[in-house]
Predict the structure.
Amino acid sequence: MSKNSSRTAGRHFLQIPGPSPVPDRILRAMDRPIIDHRGPEFAALAKGVLEGIKTIFKTTNPVIIYTATGTGAWEAALVNTLAAGDKVLMVETGQFATLWKTMASNLGLKPEFIETDWRIGADPVAIEARLKDDKRHEIKAVCVLHNETSTGCLSPIKEIRAAIDKAAHPALFMVDTISSLASADYRHDEWGVDVTIGGAQKGLMLPPGMSFNAVSDKALAASKKATLPKSFWSWEDMLTMNKQGFFPYTPATQMIHGLAAAIEMLHEEGLDNVFARHDRLAEATRRAVRAWNLEIFCRDPKYYSPTITAVLLPEGYDADSVRILALDTFDISFGVSFARYAGRFFRIGHLGDTNDLTIIGALAGTEMALALAGIPHSKGGVQAAMDYITSMHARPVRAAAE
Ligand code: PLP
């Protein structure tokens, strides 16, 4: 932005790993008069949304919708299923896994962490080994993040389910999909997840302030015996009221309108196409990083995230200065790095309502900011990304004579 101007032209490039940009169609869907949340119009809307959201989690069981950010849905998952003193097995994939573990402790649970250097996802082999050791079945839940937003590492949920089964362990399986839902393939029922936690502000392209628990029959059965205190988060009250299309308290009516539009848009594009688009943009971003001769923070391709790429800078260079300079100069926001890695990397979000040209623009902004910040790198990242995206769209060219 020019130093002598109070206006920035064009749209801000919101390349943080969520909240992601809200499409105009969703903004328009929300831009309408408030309706009675105990009236027939709302009941019809809510019933449609409560059914529609199941198709995004790929479940036929209920999905509970909270007027809360993702953190609330974390808490709901724990307090509805567990009792004080219960052991829960978690994996230290990064900052968000650490926050969830802190919450578990605060609630009176006994979390146990499988430690990592934050540069990989949750390893099914390590989970299986720990569960096999737990002969007395003291661990009551295994809690992992599908996508660790703070590092850009995706965990193999289907393999983790298989690991729990191989250990013949009865623990509940809880998965946080806050930065992967509606961006990466995810199957609540097929993969045998008991509670899936989701959030509105990433793949669902909504503003922050809504979150979800998709629940299995086993989780519902556990909720009948769970003794951690709960009130606002109670599944029971929600499920009873939801049957009529209502909520036990005033729901965020405008967010429900927005969610209806988001579900419609995701199905118009086709979920498989949505996932393929995210995979394409992620690979284009990784190719740019490699061409810059910089390091992708996720150190094992098995765990690459389709929604976030963290870019590690050489020792002695400050990633925050790149972010600040990029914002000041090109009006683009990147994600920060946390805790032991503070200032070591910045994160590029490529999720939600993002297309080929958005990511090329974002990568161009990144490449220019790297140059302005004096970060040692090679040129050609944007070119590498363009070449990859072009190749993914290439169609056979017909000979002129045909
Ligand atoms: N889990 C993950 C994976 C997240 O990315 C976030 C937020 O970005 C959270 C949990 C916490 O969600 P919220 O900030 O919406 O409370």
Remarks:
- Residues 196 and 319 are 33 Å apart (CA to CA).
- The pocket of pyridoxal-5'-phosphate is lined by residues 18, 69-71, 96, 145, 149, 176, 178-179, 199, 208 (CB under 6 Å).
- The mean pLDDT is 97.
- The longest helix spans residues 271-291.
